[in-house]
Amino acid sequence: MALFRSLMRLIKWGVLIAAIIFAIHCWLVAKTYMFTEESVAALAKKHVGTTDIKKAFSQIHQEMLKKHPGHILPGEDLQWVFMNAGGWMGSMCLVHASLTEYVLFFGSAVDTVGHSGRYWANISDTVITGEFRQWKEGELTVNIHKPGETVLHVWGEATGVNFKAGTWMLEYGRGFIPSTLGFALADTIFSTQDFVTMFYIFRIYAKLLTMEAGHYVTHLQEMFQ
Q1: What Å distances lie between residue 83 and 77, 87, 107, 144, 213, CA to CA?
Q2: In the beta sheet, which residues pair with residue 143?
Q3: CA angle 97-78-205, nearest 5°?
Q4: What was the pLDDT predicted at 221?
Q5: For an engineered disulfide with 108, which of 125, 129, 147, 163 has Cβ 3.0 to 4.6 Å away?
Q6: How far is CA 84 from CA 26, 28, 167, 193, in A?
Q7: Are the beta carbons of 158 and 183 closer than 8 angstroms?
Q8: 82 Rama class: left (phi>0) / alpha (psi -120 to 50) / beta
Q9: What topology is assigned to 33-224 in CATH?
Q10: β-pairing verdict for 112-115 and 121-129
Q11: Domain boundaries, the chain
C-alpha cells in the first residue's frame, strides 16, 4: 500500500510538471516578442569588418537604446563579466533580458573550445569579428562561420563550439530564459567557484527583470485607467 501511494504521488508530480511545461510552451508560442533574429543580426552586420570592436558595441547599444527605450540597460550599468560554461571561457555583456528574450555582446580574446549546452530556447549569434566553429551532433565535419554570418542554435540541439581568439558577436536568445541558467552557471559552481562573477550575473539579470516588470505594471495600470 505504501508503495502504491508513493507511486501515485510520483505520477501526480509528473502530471503537474508536464502541465507546467506545456503551459510555458504554449505561452512562448503565443506571445509577442520585442526582437527578431533578423533585426538583431542586421544590427551586427552593420559593423562587420570593424577594427574597433568596443566602438562597434557602443554604437549597437546606442541604436538599441533609441529603438527600445526603457528596455535596454543604460550605459552606466553595462558590465562585462567572464562566463565559463561547457568547458569554454568567454566574456559577455547583457544589454536586454526578460523571462523570454535576451540580447548580449559575447566573445573571447583567447582561443576556447567546449560544449554548447542544450537549451529550451533558440539562440542566434551574428559574428562581427573573428571565427566561430560549430561541430554539430552526429556530423564528422565542422562548420566555419566568418564575420557577417549568423549561427543558429535551436531548441534541444547540442554542438561542439570553438571560438577563435578575437571572436566577438551579438547574441539573441528566445525561449524560457531561466532554463538556460543551469548550464550557464554549472562550471562556475562546480569548477571555477568564481562566485563573484555569479553574483554579477544574477545582479544584472535581476536589474533587467525589474525593468521589464516595471513596464508590465505600468501597462496594466494604463489598461485599467
Answers
A1: 18, 10, 10, 22, 26
A2: 134
A3: 30
A4: 67
A5: 163
A6: 31, 28, 16, 10
A7: no
A8: beta
A9: Jelly Rolls (2.60.120)
A10: unpaired
A11: 1-30, 33-224
C-alpha 110 chain-centroid distance: 21
Q: How far apart are CA 166 and CA 89, in angstroms?
A: 13
Among candidate residues 103, 11, 119, 13, the one with its CA nearest the CA of residue 57: 103
Q: Is the dihedral of CA 147, 95, 199, 186 positive or negative?
A: negative
Q: Does pTM top 0.85 for this prediction?
A: yes
Q: For residue range 117-142, what is the model confidence (pLDDT) as tens digits?
A: 999 899 999 999 999 999 999 999 99
Question: What cell numbers appear for 80 in the block?
Answer: 562585462
d(C-alpha 161, C-alpha 123), whole Å: 13
Q: Which H or E run contains 63?
A: helix 53-67
Numbers of helices and strands, H then E, in the chain: 5, 10
Residue 109's CB: how many other CB atoms inside 10 A?
14
Is 4's pLDDT higher than 70?
Answer: no
Are 99 and 176 spatial neighbours (Cβ–Cβ below 8 Å)? yes
Burial class (CB in 10 A: 0-12, 13-18, 19+), 153: buried
Residue 78 one-letter amino acid: L
**Helix (H/G/I), strand (E/B), else coil: 149:** coil
